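hey so i finally got around to running both of the ones u sent me last week. sorry it took forever, my laptop kept dying halfway thru and i had to restart like 3 times lol. anyway pasting them below in the order u listed, first the sequence line then the structure token line for each. didnt double check formatting much so if smth looks off just lmk and ill redo it

first one:
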Amino acid sequence: MKPEDLHYAKTHEWVSVAEVGGQKIATVGISAFAVEALTDLVFIELPKVGAQAEAEQPFCEVESVKAVSDVYAPVTGEVIEVNTALPDKLEILSTDPYIEGWIAKIRITDESNLGNLLDFAAYQKQCEEEGH
């Protein structure tokens, strides 16, 4: 997955939506900008498979040496898979946030929030504004 092909929440989560067996599945992670801002990650609490994720609500958290930060679900649906490699290899979030660094896959049950996501250009603009 290339960052240019993804959609982004204003809270720095990225989303890739694919049609799988007639259902829309969102793969979710946090952007390189977010990982850089958090610095020195020490822990991630993954969501539980089967849990309901609500768009724009926290669905897991990451902890850095500075703070604990919520990761917000960019879509509404059921968590169907989590990246079980992450808790033991947090460096993946820094080295490969868009391919190996995905956090969860969510079966979308309400598509209404997809329209709120930013494309790459709009997200880059937001990051530049936050960086000043």
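and the second one:
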Amino acid sequence: MDKKVAALLTDMVEEIELTDPAEKLRDAGHQVDLIGKGKGETIKGKNGQEMTLDYGVDDVDPSDYDALLVPGGFSPDLLRINEKNATFARQFFESDKPVFAICHAPQFLVDTEQLKGKRLTSFVSVRNDLRNAGAKVVDEEVVVDGNFVTSRKPDDLPAFNREALKQLEG
């Protein structure tokens, strides 16, 4: 395995926004761990798919990971309930590690207090929240701001995956 990627999620995740990037990352030789409320717990996606978490957010250290993936759906909003999730995610920004966020995921990242001045995109319904947090929001298929990669929706997954993989090269 080349790099370790922490996928932070909970119930109501948009499954394809997790499974498609995770598959592409794994195909490239990277490890993807599903992290959420508790090790071995089962979460249920927006479309009913059940997934077992590899670790709870309390069981892992961001320094053990090379990048963070936050898929969309309603999971990002639910992640905001536990401030430990934002603390975990914030450490990726503070350590200048890649962060990949699609659809509604940047909404959760507002709680990291790291979006001010960042150029990004997201699903249309959360863009005002992002602007209010100081982000420079655009409507593009994929936006790369340093090592921060964002996309708007599942249709953007090919571009999102391409740019995420580029961040892990080398």
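quick thing i noticed on the 2nd:
The two ends are 13 Å apart (CA to CA).
anyway thats it, ttyl
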